[in-house]
Write a structure and sequence with these properties.
With 106 residues, the chain is an all-alpha fold. The protein has one domain. It contains 4 helices and no strands. Helix 1 crosses helix 3 and helix 3 runs antiparallel to helix 4. The protein is flat. Belongs to the drug/metabolite transporter (DMT) superfamily. Small multidrug resistance (SMR) (TC 2.A.7.1) family.
């Protein structure tokens, strides 16, 4: 169940990151409320995951998935470019997440 909580937390992290861009410096009410709720949801589900997972593993996987999701959706929603350097970084993040999961014995 911890990994499911972690995936939910990562989804909230992506919404938080993308929502922060839409707030325009927290001057727009609805995007600001959505962003605050996503931040709270992400931290809540991360805390549930960390009941079982080591904090180093859980936090790193959470931020890794959040980073990849933010870059991919940023490209789709905001027309940001995905460069070769970004693709290499994705590979490094995914490799790190896989190794952490293996090291955690799960």
């Amino acid at each position: 169940m911890a990994w499911i909580h972690l995936l939910i937390a990562a989804a909230f992290e992506v919404v938080f990151a993308l929502g922060t861009n839409a707030t325009e410096g927290f001057t727009r009410l609805w995007p600001s409320l959505l962003t605050a709720a996503a931040a709270a949801g992400g931290i809540f589900f991360l805390s549930l995951a960390l009941r079982t997972l080591d904090v180093g593993v859980g936090y790193t996987v959470w931020t890794g998935i959040g980073s990849i999701g933010t870059v991919v959706l940023g490209a789709l929603l905001y027309k940001e470019k995905i460069t070769l350097a970004k693709l290499g970084s994705f590979a490094a993040i995914i490799g790190g997440v896989v190794l952490l999961k293996v090291a955690a014995g799960i």
